[in-house]
Fold Lycopene cyclase family protein.
Amino acid sequence: MKIEAKYDVIIAGGGLSGLSLAWYLAKGNYKGEVLVTDSTFAPTNDKTWCFWSNKEPPFRDVIYKKWKKTWVSVLDYSTFRYLNEYSYYCIRSGDFREYVLRELKKHKNFDLLEDNILDFSSNQSKAVMLTKGGDSYIANYIFQSIMKPKDLDRSQIKYPLIQHFLGWEIKTYEPAFDPETFTIMDFDNEFEPGVGFMYVLPYTQSKALLEFTVFSEDVLKKKKYKKKIKHYLLHELGLDKDHYEIRRKEYGEIPMEDRPHVPYYDKNIINLGSVGGQTKPSTGYTFTRIQDYTQKLAQNLIQGFEPLPPQQSKLKYRYYDLLLLHILSNSTNDSLRVFRSLFKKNNFDDIFRFLGEDTNLRQDLKIMSSVPYIPFFKAIWKNL
Ligand SMILES: Cc1cc2nc3c(=O)[nH]c(=O)nc-3n(C[C@H](O)[C@H](O)[C@H](O)COP(=O)(O)OP(=O)(O)OC[C@H]3O[C@@H](n4cnc5c(N)ncnc54)[C@H](O)[C@@H]3O)c2cc1C
């Protein structure tokens, strides 16, 4: 027999955004009936989420590692830099999932459903989720993080960039890392097309995640990322394959495109997370934006209001993103020069504040005046 169950809220997709929303609702004592659905709730550490914060970080209990010092290298500029006001944190997706599910199971008004979601539909007053088993679930609102927005007009995207990366979590047989210093960007100055760099998260002296990351329109063949990681291990850290073992691999593609804002999938169905366009286009960082939005959304629902759709960034930040996307899409050399000046002439607290969209005009001008102006003039000309 086909089920037809009714809820106040359905959260379709139990990844970062879906479970963050569920967490804030549960912790805020939301009284409505909630269904959280995912194809599987198995807690796999397939994603390592990092973010910076100058406040009490979210999900403090499952923070895997925190850093206050970073290494950056671009063209002829390489240096250690300290973070003062901000810290850089990482959370593993499996730890996060396990932690949130443990909390949800304490709340009788939260149901968990493991099933594949096939489709959604809605009318003026209700939204419906259809699963592979043929069951339908009805709710006042569905918050979905699994399907790309239906009305997304891809022809409006000017810079279809992707941040793509392959990472190896390795264990070395001898101490090889400084666990206090993460490498935010160690650029491969010869890489083309696009911008390529190594990102290194050292957890202990002998355990680290190393990711070869690229900003470009097309992903690489897997063997190309592997070759880059091996090369880095050998030439930067002096580690050949007899000095380490690979414990885990992590692959990701994060959209960095300047896509149109599409907050609704359909009437009463709101887009969340990556498919909801919550990634900051010029950086690929999404974690903090998801937290900010799901926290506000949960408060809204708890207070009995209509759900607040995701808001766009302020116009000035969208414009800055567009300029940077233009440079990243058009010239590797200009991109490297911009990163070089950005890192050389600013402290990391100011850079994080700017990328976190928390600056005033004076702070914006300080950052803007620190980078070479010709690439930006070209970008402005093309994006008037
Ligand atoms: C490997 C990786 C690392 C990242 N690292 C960072 C980082 O360091 N910092 C940062 O800010 N951002 C990072 N991101 C970007 C972003 O924060 C993550 O992608 C984040 O997981 C997005 O959350 P989400 O809820 O949109 O999607 P997800 O977390 O992917 O959640 C979607 C959920 O929907 C489920 N699902 C999908 N289809 C169906 C279906 N048909 N039926 C049922 N369930 C379904 C999936 O199983 C999944 O659990 C990373 C992305 C990747 C891929």
